[in-house]
Amino acid sequence: MGWLAFSFLLLIWELGSRLNPALQPYLPPVSRILSTLGEVVLSGQIVSHLMITLSRFLQGYLLAASMAVILGTVLGYFRLAHSLFEAVIEFLRPMPSVAIIPVAVLLLGIGDAMIVAVTVYASLWPVLINTIDGVRHIERTLIDTGRTFGLNRRKILWQVVLPAAAPYIVTGLRISLSIALILVTTAEMVAGSKGLGFFILDEERSMNSSNMYAGVILVAVLGYLLNRLFLLCEAWAMNWRRGMLARESI
Amino acid sequence: MRESRLNGLLFFLGLLLLWELAAQAGLMNPLIVPPLSRILRVFSELVWSGQIPLQVLTSMKRAAAGYVMAAIVFIPLGILMGLSQSVYRLLEVIVEMLRPVPPPVMIPVAMLFFGLEDEMKIFVIFFSCAWPILLNTLDGARNVDRVLLNTARTFGLSQWKIIWKVILPACSPQIVTGLKVSLPIMLILVVISEMVGSTDGIGYFILDSQRRFRVAQMYAGMFTLAILGYTLNQLFNFLYKLLMPWHVGLLRVKDGS
Amino acid sequence: MPLLEVQNLSKTYRQMGGETTVAIREISCKIQRGEFVSFVGPSGCGKTTLLMSIAGLIAPSSGRVMVHGKEVTGPPPNLVLVFQDFNKSLFAWRSVLGNVRFGLEARGNHSRQAEGKARSLIDLVGLNGFENHYPWELSGGMQQRVAIARALAYEPEVLLMDEPFGSLDALTRLELEDTVLKLWEELSTTILFITHDIEEAIYLSDRILLLSQRPSQIVEELPIDFARPRNQVVTRAEARFMEIRNRIYQRIRNEGAPL
């Protein structure tokens, strides 16, 4: 039934746009947007932008994820490290990551390096905070269990601490996924010359609204697919949680 | 625990001191990382001259407008969707279609309609804050305890009264969560929208300072943003404790068990 | 030589305000190989502290624990502790089989036969068929069985059990008491058992050591020589069973504290 409502909405859009030519530069008919989408995809024009955005996203996200998990584990596991850096983290956290864009431009100019750097910075935080949280709040009994079985500190870290903190880490990774995409597109809009973010803005400036909407749709689809891919990986890696979560949601 | 906080604070101050010394010793490029003292000086100048407060106010006006509008529209909508299966199924697809759009991407769309005016930013913030507010409210309304609802019905309350007196308070924790999560989103988006398409506001200020190579000013702006983010959060928590003290206690008990 | 010896063990905790609490003071005892010894005492008397110190998880303030004549300075390799809070001790990310295999892996056994051994242990504790279940899917009693199987997979000489059945219902407790006895007889492990349930201690043990209120000391030692194998109906019906139980109960009540 929801599809009915959605299609109905699209129908109103289509008719409203076709019947009202003055509206068309702002809100072109759905059919035209879709055909434009088909054109730009097939012509490969937008595909290069898509690939660039995707590559920056992957670099930024994966780099941030690995750094943050390592750093977060260290800060969560070693009380000294945590107490030292606590204040620094608390100070930097409230600042919106996007504010780092001008600094990055200053340091790295305009281009891939800047965009990836900005993405890394922003994507670090959710994973870092969640990892620290997960590692810090591990049950004392769990660690004592590892100890009573004769495990040394390193083994406890790998075999007890990290699996136990995994749910928290995954939550952070999921949040960072959307953040990374947001930052890449934003950086491309603010100071880029390629990529989907730039494309959308550029088409808007040239008043090519159909192209612009096509770009928006593409970004949304990208975000959706990335999300589903993540959920798939999560389900595969953490199938022991699936049952627990299902029970909790009843 | 106090001792560790002191450690952290000392370490942090130590880093700041290191920054200052390194900058003064010429170890860092002043065009990229000026001395901390200069940044603080510029910051206080800009605050006293009213520049920074002006920019902050401008940004906050837009942000607040978008935020409040999102709350006014999407809290009732969320409750409606949470309570009524048919409404939910009607709107479900539309919501799922719009959700994956990263909010900044809506900026050019908004620019198409509103140009570089305030309305553009307000719309973008409205759009971005929509989802956390809507989804959390929906979740809260959906999960209102059956027992609570039946209790209200036994007292013979009308549907409208039930919503107002039972459901709304019952899912207010979830609503608050949605509002709380939307707060940083609001801040982020007002900054982004000002960086991409504006001629004033704190976001524009930071970017503009960078473009004119007024580097100390740029950092001063970022510092302002950090303070702003922190203040908004504290303000929110304060209002929350003031208006919903019963929930604070409830959470504490839940955590205890 | 006794397998395990506790020599003048004391533990004092220091709190944040600077106050100190003496949990146990000058406890000494000797445990022979193959014994089943229970510690019984009022709640809060430091039984857990004692067991954790013996297990090498807590460092004593003074005195020492000797295992095979060697002083304990960390978790000894031939000793394992089963915790009271089994749901905080079991690994949620491993299945029942995985948890039990952990005990073997900790011993260094990663081989193919390890799986077979794990399965036989799971069978021994009565969880046949649940190998691929995850802890959250099991009842409390079953979870504790997994914890016990995991501990036994480690092949410890000494098994320490900290009120293992404390959070379970009465019927499950009786079942598990018999399970533990069966395991003890089959595997000839030495067991140190903590419980606040007097009758459980009498039913299970060769010897009971009574602990006083904080600062804990051993106030009495009772040998228990009912015939083995013990039986929930027969053994508990013996007249002497109640005598001993009343004696212990009185003794603890005189300490002026709840059990």
What number of domains of chain A?
1
Tell me the overall shape of chain A: elongated
Largest sheet: number of strands, sense, barrel closure of chain A:
none
Number of DSSP helical runs of chain A: 11
The chain-level structural class of chain A is mainly alpha
First and last CA, distance of chain C: 34 Å
CA radius of gyration of chain A is 23 Å
Q: Biggest interface, which chains?
A: A-B, 57 and 55 residues
CATH superfamily of the largest domain in chain C: P-loop containing nucleotide triphosphate hydrolases
According to CATH, the fold-level topology of chain A is MetI-like fold
Task: Describe the 3D structure.
The complex is a heterotrimer of chains A (250), B (257) and C (259). Chain A has 250 residues and is mainly alpha-helical. The longest helix of chain A is centred in the C-terminal third of the chain and has 39 residues. Chain A has a single domain, classed as MetI-like (MetI-like fold). Chain A contains eleven helices and no strands. Chain B has one domain: MetI-like fold, CATH 1.10.3720.10. In chain B, 83% of the residues lie in helices and 0% in strands. In chain B, helix 3 packs parallel to helix 6, helix 3 crosses helix 9 and helix 9 runs parallel beside helix 10. With 259 residues, chain C is α/β, with parallel strands linked by helices. In chain C, helix 3 crosses helix 4, helix 4 packs across helix 5 and helix 7 crosses helix 9. The longest helix of chain C has 18 residues.
